[in-house]
Amino acid sequence: KTTIRADNEVEAHREANNYKFGFRKWKGNVTEKPIEDQSDIIQELHSDLSIVKPQEGSVATFGNVVYVIFFGWWISLIYLLICPVMFLTILGVPYGKLCLKMAWYFIWPFGKSIEKVIDGADGAEKDSAPLLMSTPIPVRIAVPEPPAQKTSKHWVKKSLYHLQCRVSTYVWLLLGFPVLAVVHSLACVLSWLPVFTIPVAKMNARALTVVLLMEPEDIQIHMLDTVDIYTCECESRVVLCCYHAFNVYFYKYTVQGINIFALNLLPLVFITIIFGYADREHNLCSSETKFATAITSIIPLSYYIGMGIASISAQSNFAVGAVVNATFGSISEMTFYITALLHGYHTGTKCYEEIVKAALTGTLLGCILFVPGICMIIGGIRHSEQRFNSRSAGVSSALLFISVGGVFAPTIFSKAFGNLVCESCTNIPGNGSVPFVCKDCHYDTFSGYSSVPFSLVVPLVYTVSVLLPAAYLIGLIFTLKTHSHIYDIHISDGHGGHAHGGHHVVHWSRLRALGVLIAATILMACCADLCTQNIEPILTHSFISQYFISVTVLAMVPELPEIVNGIQFALQNNISLSLEVGSCIAVQVCMIQIPLLILFNAFYDVGFVLVFSDIHLWASIFSVILVNYIFMDGKCDYFQGTALVVVYLILLALYFFAPSPRSC
């Protein structure tokens, strides 16, 4: 029995979908959770750097020192260069003094606070703005009422002062602010992209949008210590306060539910597509660079497709969720496979067909061995021994046996009844026992369409392509309808269930999620097309076997978001879902993706025939047998995970040293 806690009905539906066979497993939330209900770490990640709190430990950390080396010195230097310019204008003297303050602040901002002085003219702001704080709860400081204005002479002086301030502001906005806007924007971009230095980006953004637009006389910079925090009686409010430039927990940071890594990689997608199609002559960047960026761009697109599927499924009934998962669940891989086959067909080479077969096998091996193996290792290190539902794992194992048996049935048939063809044979005179020595021998069933083996392989392939989806459908009915009790999942919010539905705001509505799916699919097709266009130099000039490139890079890069989900499940001691992540992908490869490729080839003949090389055949069969042996007892630890990963690495070594396919 597995009990899962969920915050609302939509999240409960998403959690339940994770345990359904054929549904894509998704770890992240699809609804917005109030910030006050989240952990202290998440609240700190989303803070606006305007909270002063008791400092724990020293601010002289390694990350802060790195900030000085990469950011602090040159930002401070720019302020020092602008300072004399403002002084020379006479009217910009107040802003020259501000530049001196900011230069002193940015060289080492940690443990300092930028505060805005509140005078009598800012009474309304005093009543509402949070002042200096010792905890995340605002501490308001009482300020006496401003004195009444008594004379007209005072009013005249004040008017002249504001006029001078307006003129100095124009000088500042003309000479100083534009340069600093470029500097802080550059610092924001450079510190935002590495993710873990986002506090530096937030600090620069707040300085640009808030501090530099304030009146310079109202800005004060103070060192923070315990005495300041608890005894401050000043009439000011904190505008900016930063303690650390580096925070390792920013890998959890999200924007509108989107993980920060997927968000940061999104510009790479558009840059890749623009340069990939605009620079066809490779004047700006090489084919290898275009291939690397295109294959990397598939990672965030796979993430967006996964989140879109999870969002629609969590807000829809079972039928809609099943259709969405079946249509879009394999779209990442299918776009690459089809574009590769089309490219090979138009260029008249069978090499791309071999690449597709190697990528299919690599996905199968990675999801059978590497994904559960790495999840067992990470989860086992944290939780010693983990248990999972052996019966549900048994269903997945049975489907894996059916899948591998069906996919490789035409290959076994060709080995049994094909013609043995050798590239070169040498006659050895005088040797009666071994008259010929032949090299590079293989079974050839495609020497001609009139050959008997080929005429039998084609209908066998079509038969398999019908039986495999049928077995997948039976698996859906078995696990989701007639025998759904084998999962025994109970979802609770800890407050008596979801009878009232609860208040929740989804990150993506169904319409928005559908739009994201369609857009991500189109972008995925473009990136896959660029991969196939620019992979040829890597295949021809690389000393690495084409087999190895296909079973590693082309096979596993699109699955990285799924691998991350599996690891997160394992860390939460939910190894059952971690194992289902790999099994689900492997089953979909064999029972959905390969039949779809055969169907595509039936309508648009690109020469794809479901016959694999020996190395793919025996590696897949051995992997399925091994993983079924591991899953038998319903428990696992890091040693079993290590065994799976080691076997996977051995197979990769086999592919690494294997000669490239004959067609390549």
Question: What is the global morphology?
Answer: globular
Tell me the radius of gyration.
32 Å
Main sheet specs: 3 strands, antiparallel
Count of alpha and pi helical runs: 23
Please list the strands of the largest sheet in the order they lie side by side: 4-3-5
N→C terminal distance: 52 Å
CATH topology assignment of the largest domain: A middle domain of Talin 1
- What is the name of the CATH superfamily of the largest domain? NCX, central ion-binding region
Overall mean pLDDT stands at 82
Keywords: Antiport, Calcium, Calcium transport, Ion transport, Membrane, Phosphoprotein, Transmembrane, Transmembrane helix, Transport
Domain Inner membrane component: 62-112
InterPro entries: CaH_exchang, NaCa_Exmemb, NCX_ion-bd_dom_sf, YccF
Organism: Gasterosteus aculeatus (Three-spined stickleback)
Describe this structure in words.
The protein has two domains: 169 residues, no CATH class; 398 residues, NCX, central ion-binding region (A middle domain of Talin 1). It is mainly alpha-helical. It is globular. α10 runs antiparallel to α17, α12 packs parallel to α17 and α14 packs parallel to α21. The strands form six sheets. It has a three-stranded antiparallel β-sheet with strand order 4-3-5. It has a two-stranded parallel ribbon with strand order 1-11. About 6% of the residues have low confidence.
